[in-house]
Amino acid sequence: MALVKCKWCEEKVEKESAFVIEKQTKEKLKSGKQKVLRTYLHDKCVDAYFDDKAFKEREQKQLDSLRDTIMEIHGIRPEDFPRHFYQLLQDIRNGNMIGRQRKNYKSGTEYRIIEKAYLLAESDIKWQKLKKSFDTTLGELKYGLAIVRDKLKMARDRDRAEKQARKIAKAGLQKEIAPDANNFKKKDKEDLDITDFLD
């Protein structure tokens, strides 16, 4: 029996019993067939692998949206966007503090909240662009990021308040759809109640 490496846990798994993900490539083999890349997983690792893949796709979409917002606010073309700036954004996302490194993966502020902070700081950034001249695009972006760092707490608080409002609205909507059972409560009888004798 052939053994292959599990893509998720990196332990050996039997090729016949492994879960296989096949991906067609554009390359062709000498025989003329298309080259196929195969990923092997344990049955227990499949859910974790797909959850991680979905998380990474969601993170990439949020990062792309953030990059588009930054380019719009700063008036930068895509080819002028410095690659080094991605590292600064990822430091915020990973929770790295200025001057200190933390090794926590994706434990900091989410990209969507950083984007909200950029939108909150848009007028301040544009005002500073008019007031100050920058030598490089990276210098301008770093200055804007310093302004955005001050707005992160406000963006987090607004995001928390929006989530709370949605939760309350959802609870209120569910209460309207499914009202509680009969709320009629029978009064407790008093010891000195003479209505029982009147019958």
Please count the helical segments: 5
**Number of structural domains:** 2
Oligomeric state:
single chain
Give the % helix. 40-55%
Largest sheet, described in full? Answer: 2 strands, antiparallel
Rounded to an integer in angstroms, the radius of gyration calculated over CA atoms is: 29 Å
Strand arrangement across the biggest beta sheet: 1-2
Mean pLDDT: 83
Alpha-carbon distance between the termini? Answer: 90 Å
H/E topology pattern: EEEEHHHHH
The secondary-structure class comes to alpha+beta
* Unreliable stretches covering 5 or more consecutive residues: none
Number of strands: 4
Strand content: 5-15%
Tell me the overall shape. flat
Please provide a written account of the structure.
The chain contains 5 helices and 4 strands; from the N terminus they run E-E-E-E-H-H-H-H-H. With 199 residues, the chain is α+β, with helices and mostly antiparallel strands. The chain folds into 2 domains: 3-26 and 36-44, no CATH class; 52-172, no CATH class. The strands form 2 sheets. Strands 1-2 form a two-stranded antiparallel sheet. The longest helix is centred in the C-terminal third of the chain and has 41 residues, at 137-177. It is flat, with a radius of gyration of 29 Å.
Provide the fold topology.
Layout: E1 3-5, E2 12-14, E3 19-28, E4 34-41, H1 46-74, H2 84-94, H3 111-120, H4 122-131, H5 137-177
Antiparallel strand pairs: 1-2, 3-4
Helix pairs in contact: 1-3, 3-5, 4-5
Give a concise summary.
The protein has helices at residues 46-74, 84-94, 111-120, 122-131, 137-177, and strands spanning 3-5, 12-14, 19-28, 34-41. It contains five helices and four strands.
